[in-house]
Amino acid sequence: MVVYGRGRAWVCGGLALWVLAGSWCVALATRETATALDSNGSVALHGDGDDGGNNKTCPDETDHHGGGVRLASLRWREVGVYYTITAFVIIAGLAKLLFHHMHWVSSKVPESCVLVILGVALGLLVYFTAHKTTPTDSCHYHVPLPHFTSDKFFFVLLPPIVLESAYSLHDRAFFDNLGTVLVFALVGTIFNIFTIGPTLYGLNALGAMGNISFTFSEGLVFSSLISAVDPVAVLAIFQELGVNKDLYFLVFGESLLNDGVTVVVYNTMQSFMAQEGAVGAEQYALAVAAVAVVVFGGALIGVVFGFITAFITKYTTDVRVVEPLALLALSYLSYLTAELFHFSGIISLIVCGLIQAHYAFQNISQKSYTCVKYFTKMASATSDTVIFMFLGMVLVSDEHLWHTGFVLWTLALCIIFRFIGVFVLTGIMNHYRVKKVGLEEQFIAAYGGLRGAVSFSLVNMLDESMGPRRIFVTTTLVVILFTIFIQGTTIKPLVSLLQIQRASHGRKHLGEEINNTTMDHIMAGVEEILGQHGDFYLRELLVHYNDKYLRKWFLRPTVDSKLKRLFEKIAISEHYAHLYGPVAMIEERVKPLCHTKMPSKRVRSDSFSMSHQDELLLQPRMNMEGEMFEDIESKSATGSDIELRQHHPGPLLPLRQSKVGSIDLQRQDSATTQTQDANVLRKALRNNPYNKTSRMAEAERTERQVLRKALIHSSRSARRTRYRVGVGCVARLHYKYNRNLVGEEDQELEEHLERRRLNARRMTRLASSTRLPPSSAGFTNAGGRRNTMLESHDLTFGAAELVERHNVRRRTMSARPRVGSVLSSHQASALHRPIISCFSSPDPTDSTPASPAILMALQEASDPLSSLPDIRPWGPGSGPPKDQASTPGTTESSLLGHESPPSGFTSIPESQTQEILLSPGSELSGTRDGEEGEMVPLVEQPQSEKGSPSSPEALKGMIV
Amino acid sequence: MGNKSSLMLQEQDIRDIQSETGFLPSQIERLYSRFTSLDKGDNGTLSREDFLRIPELAINPLGDRIVHAFFKESEDDHVNFRQFVRVLAHFRPIKRTQDNKLNAREEKLRFAFKMYDLDDDERISREELLAVLHMMVGENISDDQLNSIAERTILEADKDGDQMISFEEFCCALERTDVEQKMSIKFLK
């Protein structure tokens, strides 16, 4: 529905314009009616102190208020500042929104470019409406639009961005690459500064540029500010790129950490400039020492504040509200403290953020964590939007002084030396690295050296009296724009062209987690035996002392280890799967038949993948790389169970199941005759290797490829016809690496639920497909084992695990009376008329007659659907009858013939769950994931929390 | 035999070792000097005591297992230089150009597998996994939970339903892990 998407885009655009126009009208109206009213006109974005001083210079202000009673008046003087600021920020936010709804733009152009353009538009507006009055005249009104100042940038806009990125740096990949990153940041930046500056000076001296004169020191000052690779610009582009972690942290880490060097060299060069001529060797030595002081001083302050936060959050159990405050305020304080002493605030903030992420995040509650995560994400997104808009706005000015030679030479040198620096340094570093940085990656790292607001702030801070200042400002802007626009827009195609490895998302398995620890220990041990104290050894040492002392000092005793948290996460997601899986399965079967608006044959023909369509449609919106494969796996598993069932017809309960399966089969058959996609699918199914006892891995691979192709194809055609916004193929990537999604994973409720549902369906289907004729009739141990062997040999990892799970469960449960095998009278009586009518009037395209058997299965299936608590925002939500607290359990057992699951998770009594919900400490016992914020207890959906195993017993019960 | 390896490293030995393991001669010499410095008895072989004397190994929870892995091939609880180097060769980085058996992915994985396989039966049972987990994270997690984790891990990896993890299953479970990078170190020259 492209039209719909566009429509929304226009609505957003309209809103943006409205806010813009609204604030503008107010501003202009005020300007005319109360010229003398406002003196705060030139206020800086966050109301800097110097503007307050201006107030007193206007004598007529007080007169204005001294008048008599008024019915209506404007308090623009007091409110105006905040009004414009807020309006500006909202415009920025809306611009972002608009951008993300314009898929045809957002898939091609990076966000930062669009924002800069919008900034230019705003700048033009300011220029033509409010340019007449001079800003120095404080008593005259001029439009109080916020404008760019270096203070604002460094003290308001930059910190949130750095903090957010510091949290994201808490990643194994960053520490693995730390050495290279530091070399890039230190040596690379210095190399750039001391090559660009002198070269520019030399070229000028040779007369290659034309009439411009600057001294050697001035040249170095300029090169030091132009060499600063900008974290904001890099972040904006690279987050959208979705390159592999090593490359990402290489470029991003460099851009963050080079701050210390840039600022120091910049300051030093300025002081050299002041005492022109006599720069002794000892001065240079001092400069080197200054770099060390600034960097390490900043880091030290960061460490101190980071541990203070950890220590504070250790004791906040009863005062959860202060947790986010402690984190946010203390990190800002660490930034300010470092800046106070002229240390590098950025480095201080990064170190502080890293320590917070390591300790404080584990101390705070899940909700506080979410709060911090959301707040920093929001603040940093707002900041970088504002920064880019400012950059656009400053372009519109009379003060620019264009100098072709200088601009072009600077641009060329920046690019050339960036490339040389990166290639030489990685060449050296590769010598020491186990994992080499490939040539393509080096290219992207060099190409991604974007300049941005840091450079501009520094050039803005240059002394007014400096001769070539205006040329420097203009040149800096040109370089920034060039890197953002030209390099920023071309880097995406280049990444695809060079086939850079993308970031991989995937769920971790317990085994992998355990093995990572093991491998670390092994490697540390080997290094110890070798007497070679490398990275692994240092790491081991750190971990050792961390466990021995730091954890005790800075973490609560209740904090769980990483492994346990991962375990709980897996357990919980499986628990949900078992709760919702059956529901999802019911829906999936009922929906296509009940769906009266299923018009085109085209869609119908895709019906094999119908049940998967939403899965595939969801694809672009999900961050799971492996999802596609998992889908296919589940599909092949379905295929296999069809085959298998023919070999082992299940006599007892699987009666129902095989019917369900046969629906699938029939639908497939009717579908496959119609389109080519489906033909491919059928071919794939016919050659399904699962019904052969022995199977080559090769065959399987090609099989999957065929399946995958078919799936992609059918999903594409389906996408054309079915719901969701007009998500084109191009927009996929954009969605996948959308940097505006908080937490990047499943923080979003809807997505969370949908993914859980998909997961649930997949697992349940696998589980049900691998069920065997149970104990009484066909079940012999040998037969069961044979089947299990066959199945689990064929199925992939996840499937096999489920098979085994269920086998184990069956084994343990076989002694107990079976609950779900007989239809309960309640269910039998509560047949659903509407749904039946749906079935009995079969879809014209569906040639399959609705056999009584199917009907029965479906009626039965549809029954619990309506009586379920309304946990599914996606489903037809009928009112949940209160008296059926244990419906999930009955659903599961009745539909699929699961033995009633072990007590503990489905049978938490209502009252008890209420207690859990109400008790203040309940959030403690829920899952907590300090790293990614997955599995956030869904507060907005109390029903879904109802089933959540908030008690350890429940957790344990699940893993039988 | 273990004792045969001489105190001086012969040219021929270096060449043999180089062709077998892929180490550079300079690396072999370096390893040899480390070997002799560990060899307190000066008999050309290392005993378990020699290994365990390394102070840093004491804090490594898997220290004993790693040392044990060096004695896989020896019959008399002594490791000669050849065997020493061969074990270490597992951890050489993989290069595309070189085709060496010892540092292949499978060998690296096998080394990791051996860490868990306490009774050398080529299978990891739940008890074995639990024991290793105890060594690594025992202090932080309660026994019950550790038990569940071990069980769950076995279930994840186990495919043939014998409640054990065989080496093949182990490899499958680590399919997505970048073992080549994670289990390689840069040997100094």
TrEMBL record, chain A:
Cellular location(s): Membrane
Name this protein carries in UniProt: Sodium/hydrogen exchanger
Stretch forming the signal peptide: 1-29
An example Gene Ontology biological process: sodium ion import across plasma membrane
Entry keyword Lipid biosynthesis: no
Domain of life: Eukaryota
GO cellular component: plasma membrane
Membrane topology: Multi-pass membrane protein
InterPro entries named among the record's database cross-references: Cation/H_exchanger_CPA1, Cation/H_exchanger_TM, NaH_exchanger
Species: Petrolisthes manimaculis
UniProt cross-references to Gene3D superfamilies, sorted A to Z: 6.10.140.1330
GO molecular function, one term: sodium:proton antiporter activity
UniProtKB/TrEMBL annotation, chain B:
Family membership: Belongs to the calcineurin regulatory subunit family. CHP subfamily.
CC terms in the record's Gene Ontology section: cytoplasm; nucleus; plasma membrane
Source organism (scientific name): Petrolisthes manimaculis
Biological processes, Gene Ontology terms: protein transport
EF-hand domain: residues covered: 26-61, 104-139, 145-180
PANTHER family: EG:114D9.1 PROTEIN-RELATED
Name listed for the protein in its UniProt record: EF-hand domain-containing protein
Pfam families: EF-hand_7 (PF13499)
InterPro entries: Calcineurin_B_homologous (IPR051875), EF-hand-dom_pair (IPR011992), EF_Hand_1_Ca_BS (IPR018247), EF_hand_dom (IPR002048)
Keywords, ordered alphabetically: Calcium, Cell membrane, Cytoplasm, Lipoprotein, Membrane, Metal-binding, Myristate, Nucleus, Phosphoprotein, Protein transport, Repeat, Transport
Keyword hit for Cell division: no
Gene Ontology MF, one: calcium ion binding
Localization annotation: Cell membrane; Cytoplasm; Nucleus
